[in-house]
Specification:
The structure is a single chain. With 415 residues, the protein is an alpha+beta fold. It is 36% helix and 35% strand. The strands form five sheets. The chain has a six-stranded antiparallel beta barrel with strand order 3-10-13-12-11-14. A four-stranded antiparallel β-sheet has the order 7-6-4-9. It has a three-stranded antiparallel β-sheet with strand order 15-16-17, with no helix packed on it. α2 runs antiparallel to α5 and α3 runs antiparallel to α4.
């Protein structure tokens, strides 16, 4: 029991001594050390002159710049299909073909008609026509010569008859020959005229017209034959197929859909205040969400000249070249348009500014101590903020760790 009392007394004396020492220490101001006297390393950068461009981002989806529905110009049975969905095609490639049996028969009929028309034209023009005129003209010339001879003979005998040197029977015989020769001239002349009426310029023109008509029919038959091979009108990728071998197709049904994936486009709707800042051919960054926010370059292709009647917004189309065919229609993108541009302004890194009670401050390193200064800020981008007032060019502002600092804190700037 006596031993326990001794221990308690020892503890009481020790506690009293400790409290006394603490009181003495607290009363000695010369040996106290505050947290502001402990130097801290900070990173700082001077207020500098730079330019800031703010941007506005618009969400959108990639779409094809060109999409073409391919149809057959003629109705027919599908004979073969050469491509399928996802396959790349070039302009002029044959996509599918139609059966040509009937088309070939129609072509042969048209060709035979042209051959016949050409033969008829040969008969009514050129050497064939001349060959028919030669004997007719010769017959007429002979008839005329015979008539002239008979007429001269009649006149001679008539004079002799008047003076009594020829008998009446001789005169009658001469007249009969002359009349007969006249009839021959008339018959030869009529035959020549009839030949010319059947094979002359008018008949020649009609035969030439028949040739042209037959040639047009042959050309049409050739076109129909060519139309039996349906070709791709553009370079692109097959996105849809609606034909199978053995089916009968017509021009009313889209057989294939081809998209031009060499370039894609993004459409955004903008207000009148924003659209006036955009120009055709302006380069615009486009962020691809599904490619780890990769940035690709777009170019403003078109700007709607008038606002949509319902939304009162303007449509702006941005064209993006699909290098390597990595982009796909339907991908989600963010299109970034410049908003405000300021040059030659005082700026600090965004990390230098901190907010307390809705007021912006920065810590400025003055010699080896910190000064907390209120600032008025302007525009900002993802890296820098404009300083309107509060600090001056060249001031060293702390760029990180402000929550662990106090005004008047002793600091050392480290790189």
């Amino acid at each position: 029991m006596m031993k326990l009392k001794g221990i308690k007394k020892f503890l009481l004396i020790s506690l009293t001594l400790s409290i006394t020492l603490i009181g003495v220490g607290c009363g000695n101001k010369d040996v106290s050390v505050t947290s502001n006297d402990i130097s801290k390393n900070v990173k700082a950068t001077p207020v500098s002159i730079s330019s800031i461009t703010t941007t506005t981002k618009y969400g959108s989806k990639l779409a094809t710049s060109s999409q073409t529905a391919v149809t057959s110009k003629i109705a027919g049975k599908v004979n073969g299909v050469n491509v399928d969905v996802g396959q790349s095609v070039n302009k002029g490639d044959i996509l599918f073909t139609l059966d040509r049996v009937e088309l070939t028969a129609q072509y042969n009929v048209a060709k035979a008609a042209l051959d016949t028309a050409n033969a008829n034209l040969d008969k009514t023009s050129g050497s064939g026509y001349e060959q028919q005129l030669i004997p007719a003209n010769s017959t007429l010339d002979i008839a005329k010569t015979t008539y002239n001879d008979a007429k001269n003979n009649y006149n001679t005998i008539h004079q002799q008859y008047n003076i009594g040197d020829s008998a009446k029977s001789e005169l009658d015989a001469a007249k009969s020959k002359m009349d007969s020769a006249a009839i021959q001239v008339s018959a030869a002349s009529d035959s020549l005229a009839l030949l010319k009426s059947k094979t002359g310029p008018q008949t020649d023109a009609a035969a030439a017209g028949q040739v042209q008509q037959a040639k047009a029919s042959l050309d049409l038959a050739q076109i129909q034959m060519d139309n039996a091979s349906i070709i791709s009108p553009i370079n692109g990728v097959i996105s849809e197929r609606n034909v199978e071998v053995g089916e009968v197709v017509s021009s009313a049904v889209s057989a294939f859909t081809i998209i031009d994936a060499s370039s894609l486009r993004s459409e955004v709707s903008m207000t009148d205040k924003d659209v006036i800042k955009v120009k055709v051919n302006q380069k615009i960054p486009v962020q691809i969400s599904s490619m780890n926010n990769k940035i690709v370059q777009g170019v403003v292709d078109t700007i709607s000249p008038s606002a949509d009647a319902k939304t009162q917004l303007y449509t702006v189309k941005v064209k993006i070249e699909n290098t390597g065919n990595l982009l796909k229609p339907g991908m989600i993108v963010r299109v970034e348009f410049p908003d405000v541009v300021k040059t030659d302004i005082s700026v600090v890194p965004n990390g230098a500014i901190f907010t307390e009670n809705s007021v912006q401050y920065v810590y400025v390193v003055d010699a080896t101590r910190l000064k907390k200064k209120q600032v008025v800020v302007g525009i900002a981008n993802t890296l820098q903020t404009e300083i309107v007032s509060g600090i001056k060019l060249g001031d060293q502002v702390v760029t990180e760790g402000q929550s662990f600092l106090n005004e008047g804190q002793k600091v050392s700037i480290v790189k």
